[in-house]
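Reviewers of the previous submission asked for a worked example of the structure-prediction workflow described in the proposal, so we include one complete record here. The input consisted solely of the amino acid sequence. No template or homolog information was supplied to the procedure at any stage.
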Amino acid sequence: MTTPATTITPKWHTTAEVAAMLGFGLSKTKMLVLTGEIRSVKVGRNRRILPAWVDEFVQHCAAEAEQPARWSA
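From that input alone, the workflow returned the following structure tokens.
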């Protein structure tokens, strides 16, 4: 009898995983976390980011891009 393979979906991501998902460098991603643009939680000595928070950041960036440009002189 064969047991079916189980896929484990991560509940949260490391900063490096989020950097790879977004196509950013690790330093840029850490800066976004530090400034609060991407929410995170500290677990021990490490930062973890929920998938929903990555989506929230992407949606925020997309919404900003859809707004008309404001030119100032």
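Residues 20 and 26 are 8 Å apart (CA to CA). We consider this example representative of the routine output the project will generate in years two and three.
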